Amino acid sequence: MTVRHHWSEKPGFRLQPGIIDIWLCQGDTVQERLEHLGTLLSAEERARAQRFKFEIHRNRFIISHGFQRSILAKYLNIAPASIQYQLSDKGKPSLIADERDLTFNLSHTEDISILAVTCDAEVGVDVEYMDRKADWQAIGQRFFTAPEQQALFSLPKEKQQSAFYQLWTRKEAYMKILGSGFSLLPTAFTLTVPPQPPALIQHHSTKIQATMQVEFIDIELPDELMNYCATLAAGALVGGVNCYQW
Protein backbone atom coordinates (compact mmCIF):
# COMPACT_ATOMS: atom_id res chain seq x y z
CA MET A 1 0.00 0.00 0.00
CA THR A 2 1.24 3.49 -0.87
CA VAL A 3 -0.13 6.72 0.60
CA ARG A 4 -0.52 9.48 -1.98
CA HIS A 5 -2.68 11.74 0.15
CA HIS A 6 -2.59 15.50 -0.11
CA TRP A 7 -0.34 17.00 2.53
CA SER A 8 -2.62 19.34 4.46
CA GLU A 9 -1.93 22.12 6.99
CA LYS A 10 -5.34 21.94 8.72
CA PRO A 11 -5.26 19.18 11.34
CA GLY A 12 -8.04 18.21 13.70
CA PHE A 13 -5.85 16.75 16.48
CA ARG A 14 -8.48 14.10 17.23
CA LEU A 15 -7.43 10.48 17.52
CA GLN A 16 -9.62 7.77 16.02
CA PRO A 17 -8.99 4.01 16.19
CA GLY A 18 -7.67 2.73 12.88
CA ILE A 19 -6.68 6.21 11.67
CA ILE A 20 -3.04 7.29 11.61
CA ASP A 21 -1.89 10.89 11.42
CA ILE A 22 1.47 11.43 9.75
CA TRP A 23 3.25 14.71 10.39
CA LEU A 24 6.06 16.10 8.26
CA CYS A 25 8.55 18.74 9.42
CA GLN A 26 11.03 20.31 7.00
CA GLY A 27 13.73 21.76 9.23
CA ASP A 28 14.74 24.55 6.88
CA THR A 29 11.25 26.05 7.22
CA VAL A 30 11.32 26.29 11.04
CA GLN A 31 14.81 27.63 11.75
CA GLU A 32 13.31 30.82 13.16
CA ARG A 33 11.59 28.69 15.81
CA LEU A 34 14.80 26.95 16.91
CA GLU A 35 15.26 28.89 20.16
CA HIS A 36 11.63 28.35 21.15
CA LEU A 37 11.75 24.64 20.33
CA GLY A 38 14.80 24.30 22.55
CA THR A 39 12.80 25.56 25.53
CA LEU A 40 10.30 22.71 25.09
CA LEU A 41 12.86 19.96 25.64
CA SER A 42 13.49 18.15 28.89
CA ALA A 43 16.80 18.52 30.71
CA GLU A 44 17.82 15.08 29.43
CA GLU A 45 16.99 16.04 25.83
CA ARG A 46 18.91 19.32 26.12
CA ALA A 47 21.90 17.41 27.45
CA ARG A 48 21.70 15.01 24.51
CA ALA A 49 21.57 17.95 22.11
CA GLN A 50 24.69 19.48 23.63
CA ARG A 51 26.63 16.26 23.08
CA PHE A 52 26.53 16.72 19.30
CA LYS A 53 29.88 17.97 18.03
CA PHE A 54 28.51 19.97 15.11
CA GLU A 55 25.90 22.71 15.36
CA ILE A 56 23.92 21.45 12.36
CA HIS A 57 23.35 18.07 14.05
CA ARG A 58 22.54 19.71 17.37
CA ASN A 59 19.97 21.98 15.71
CA ARG A 60 18.37 19.09 13.84
CA PHE A 61 17.96 17.18 17.10
CA ILE A 62 16.35 20.20 18.78
CA ILE A 63 13.98 20.76 15.86
CA SER A 64 12.88 17.12 15.54
CA HIS A 65 12.27 16.60 19.26
CA GLY A 66 10.70 20.02 19.74
CA PHE A 67 8.48 19.25 16.75
CA GLN A 68 7.43 15.96 18.35
CA ARG A 69 6.57 17.62 21.66
CA SER A 70 4.62 20.39 19.92
CA ILE A 71 2.47 17.92 17.98
CA LEU A 72 1.83 15.49 20.83
CA ALA A 73 0.88 18.37 23.13
CA LYS A 74 -1.93 19.34 20.75
CA TYR A 75 -3.45 15.86 20.95
CA LEU A 76 -3.02 15.71 24.73
CA ASN A 77 -4.12 19.31 25.34
CA ILE A 78 -1.17 19.98 27.63
CA ALA A 79 1.98 22.10 27.51
CA PRO A 80 4.72 20.60 25.30
CA ALA A 81 7.35 20.91 28.02
CA SER A 82 5.20 18.92 30.46
CA ILE A 83 5.18 15.75 28.35
CA GLN A 84 7.02 12.88 30.03
CA TYR A 85 8.38 9.85 28.21
CA GLN A 86 9.34 6.41 29.36
CA LEU A 87 11.55 3.95 27.50
CA SER A 88 10.98 0.25 26.98
CA ASP A 89 13.82 -2.15 27.77
CA LYS A 90 14.74 -1.89 24.07
CA GLY A 91 14.68 1.92 24.09
CA LYS A 92 11.35 2.64 22.38
CA PRO A 93 9.69 5.76 23.89
CA SER A 94 6.08 6.01 25.02
CA LEU A 95 4.07 8.43 27.12
CA ILE A 96 3.87 8.12 30.89
CA ALA A 97 0.33 7.75 32.28
CA ASP A 98 -1.50 8.45 29.02
CA GLU A 99 -5.20 7.65 29.35
CA ARG A 100 -5.87 8.07 25.64
CA ASP A 101 -3.67 5.16 24.55
CA LEU A 102 -1.82 7.51 22.22
CA THR A 103 1.07 5.86 20.41
CA PHE A 104 3.66 7.58 18.28
CA ASN A 105 6.96 7.14 16.51
CA LEU A 106 9.48 9.66 15.22
CA SER A 107 12.07 9.39 12.46
CA HIS A 108 14.43 12.01 11.09
CA THR A 109 17.16 12.23 8.48
CA GLU A 110 19.06 15.28 7.29
CA ASP A 111 16.60 18.14 8.01
CA ILE A 112 13.42 16.09 7.54
CA SER A 113 11.37 14.65 10.41
CA ILE A 114 8.28 12.44 10.27
CA LEU A 115 6.01 11.68 13.21
CA ALA A 116 3.27 9.02 13.18
CA VAL A 117 0.48 9.38 15.77
CA THR A 118 -2.47 7.08 16.45
CA CYS A 119 -4.25 5.23 19.26
CA ASP A 120 -4.82 1.58 20.16
CA ALA A 121 -2.04 0.32 17.87
CA GLU A 122 1.73 0.25 17.73
CA VAL A 123 3.34 2.29 14.95
CA GLY A 124 6.80 2.52 13.46
CA VAL A 125 7.92 5.00 10.83
CA ASP A 126 11.18 5.60 9.00
CA VAL A 127 12.37 8.26 6.57
CA GLU A 128 15.66 8.14 4.70
CA TYR A 129 17.62 10.48 2.46
CA MET A 130 18.62 8.68 -0.72
CA ASP A 131 22.35 9.41 -0.59
CA ARG A 132 23.72 8.93 -4.11
CA LYS A 133 27.28 8.66 -2.75
CA ALA A 134 26.62 5.85 -0.28
CA ASP A 135 27.81 2.31 -1.08
CA TRP A 136 24.25 1.01 -0.97
CA GLN A 137 25.11 -2.20 -2.83
CA ALA A 138 27.51 -3.24 -0.05
CA ILE A 139 24.99 -2.26 2.62
CA GLY A 140 22.31 -4.35 0.91
CA GLN A 141 24.61 -7.37 0.71
CA ARG A 142 25.34 -7.08 4.42
CA PHE A 143 21.91 -6.30 5.85
CA PHE A 144 19.36 -7.80 3.42
CA THR A 145 18.35 -11.45 3.33
CA ALA A 146 19.20 -13.64 0.34
CA PRO A 147 15.65 -13.42 -1.13
CA GLU A 148 15.67 -9.63 -0.70
CA GLN A 149 19.06 -9.35 -2.40
CA GLN A 150 17.95 -11.56 -5.26
CA ALA A 151 14.83 -9.45 -5.84
CA LEU A 152 16.72 -6.16 -5.50
CA PHE A 153 19.65 -6.94 -7.77
CA SER A 154 17.35 -8.51 -10.38
CA LEU A 155 15.73 -5.13 -10.98
CA PRO A 156 16.89 -2.91 -13.85
CA LYS A 157 20.06 -1.07 -12.78
CA GLU A 158 18.38 2.32 -12.85
CA LYS A 159 15.70 1.16 -10.38
CA GLN A 160 17.91 -0.60 -7.84
CA GLN A 161 19.03 2.39 -5.79
CA SER A 162 15.57 3.80 -5.10
CA ALA A 163 14.29 0.28 -4.36
CA PHE A 164 17.17 -0.22 -1.90
CA TYR A 165 16.24 2.87 0.10
CA GLN A 166 12.53 2.08 0.10
CA LEU A 167 13.24 -1.45 1.32
CA TRP A 168 15.53 -0.04 4.00
CA THR A 169 12.73 2.18 5.33
CA ARG A 170 10.36 -0.80 5.31
CA LYS A 171 12.77 -2.84 7.42
CA GLU A 172 13.50 0.03 9.82
CA ALA A 173 9.78 0.72 10.30
CA TYR A 174 9.15 -2.95 11.04
CA MET A 175 11.97 -3.14 13.59
CA LYS A 176 10.63 -0.02 15.26
CA ILE A 177 7.09 -1.38 15.55
CA LEU A 178 8.54 -4.49 17.16
CA GLY A 179 10.39 -2.22 19.57
CA SER A 180 13.50 -4.29 19.01
CA GLY A 181 15.97 -1.50 18.35
CA PHE A 182 19.38 -2.82 17.36
CA SER A 183 18.84 -6.09 19.26
CA LEU A 184 17.29 -7.55 16.09
CA LEU A 185 19.29 -7.79 12.89
CA PRO A 186 17.65 -6.70 9.60
CA THR A 187 18.38 -10.20 8.30
CA ALA A 188 16.01 -11.69 10.90
CA PHE A 189 13.08 -11.28 8.52
CA THR A 190 12.33 -10.96 4.82
CA LEU A 191 10.11 -8.29 3.28
CA THR A 192 8.94 -7.70 -0.25
CA VAL A 193 11.12 -5.50 -2.45
CA PRO A 194 9.78 -2.54 -4.48
CA PRO A 195 8.00 -2.31 -6.84
CA GLN A 196 6.10 -5.04 -4.96
CA PRO A 197 3.70 -3.63 -2.33
CA PRO A 198 5.24 -3.73 1.16
CA ALA A 199 4.54 -6.94 3.07
CA LEU A 200 6.19 -9.41 5.43
CA ILE A 201 7.24 -12.66 3.78
CA GLN A 202 8.97 -14.64 6.52
CA HIS A 203 10.61 -14.47 9.96
CA HIS A 204 14.02 -16.07 10.47
CA SER A 205 14.46 -15.47 14.19
CA THR A 206 12.83 -16.81 17.34
CA LYS A 207 13.24 -13.32 18.84
CA ILE A 208 10.25 -12.14 16.80
CA GLN A 209 6.78 -12.81 18.18
CA ALA A 210 4.66 -13.44 15.11
CA THR A 211 1.32 -12.72 16.79
CA MET A 212 1.12 -9.06 15.75
CA GLN A 213 -0.74 -8.28 12.53
CA VAL A 214 1.27 -5.64 10.68
CA GLU A 215 0.27 -3.44 7.77
CA PHE A 216 2.94 -1.57 5.81
CA ILE A 217 2.39 1.68 3.96
CA ASP A 218 4.92 3.35 1.66
CA ILE A 219 4.51 7.10 2.10
CA GLU A 220 4.72 9.27 -1.00
CA LEU A 221 6.31 12.52 0.14
CA PRO A 222 5.73 15.97 -1.41
CA ASP A 223 7.36 16.54 -4.80
CA GLU A 224 10.13 18.75 -3.39
CA LEU A 225 11.33 15.78 -1.31
CA MET A 226 11.92 13.45 -4.25
CA ASN A 227 15.31 12.45 -2.78
CA TYR A 228 13.67 11.04 0.35
CA CYS A 229 11.51 7.98 0.98
CA ALA A 230 9.46 6.82 3.96
CA THR A 231 7.48 3.83 5.21
CA LEU A 232 4.92 3.38 7.98
CA ALA A 233 4.27 0.10 9.80
CA ALA A 234 1.12 -0.32 11.91
CA GLY A 235 0.23 -3.12 14.30
CA ALA A 236 -3.39 -3.19 13.15
CA LEU A 237 -5.43 -2.77 10.00
CA VAL A 238 -5.27 0.84 8.87
CA GLY A 239 -8.61 2.45 8.13
CA GLY A 240 -7.14 5.70 6.88
CA VAL A 241 -4.10 7.97 6.91
CA ASN A 242 -4.05 11.75 7.31
CA CYS A 243 -0.92 13.57 6.13
CA TYR A 244 -0.06 16.97 7.60
CA GLN A 245 2.72 19.50 7.07
CA TRP A 246 3.94 21.35 10.15
Itemize the secondary structure elements and their pairings:
Elements: E1 2-3, E2 19-26, H1 34-40, H2 43-50, H3 55-76, E3 85-87, E4 93-95, E5 102-109, E6 112-119, E7 123-129, H4 136-143, H5 146-153, H6 157-178, E8 189-191, E9 200-203, E10 215-219, E11 228-234, E12 240-245
Parallel strand pairs: 1-10, 2-12
Antiparallel strand pairs: 2-6, 3-4, 5-6, 7-11, 8-9, 10-11
Describe this structure in words.
This protein is 30% helix and 26% strand. The chain has 246 residues and is α+β, with helices and mostly antiparallel strands. The chain has a single domain, classed as 4'-phosphopantetheinyl transferase domain (Ribosomal Protein L22, Chain A, Alpha-Beta Complex). Strands 1-10-11-7 form a four-stranded mixed beta sheet, with helices on one face. A four-stranded mixed beta sheet has the order 5-6-2-12, with helices on one face. Strand 3 and strand 4 form a beta hairpin. The longest helix is centred in the N-terminal third of the chain and has 22 residues, at 55-76. It is globular and about 50 Å long. The protein starts with a strand and ends with a strand. The model has no long low-confidence stretch (mean pLDDT 90).
Give the name of the CATH architecture.
Alpha-Beta Complex
Largest sheet, spatial ordering of strands: 1-10-11-7
Order of helices and strands: EEHHHEEEEEHHHEEEEE
Strand content: 25-35%
| Low-pLDDT residue spans | none
Q: Structural class given helices, strands, pairing? A: alpha+beta
CATH topology: Ribosomal Protein L22, Chain A
Number-wise, the strands total 12
**What is the helix fraction of residues, given as a range?**
25-40%
Q: The biggest beta sheet, please?
A: 4 strands, mixed
Number of helices: 6
Number of domains: 1
Backbone shape: globular
Spatial gap, N to C terminus: 24 Å
Assigned CATH class: Alpha Beta
Give the mean pLDDT. Answer: 90
- The CATH H-level homologous superfamily: 4'-phosphopantetheinyl transferase domain
Radius of gyration: 18 Å
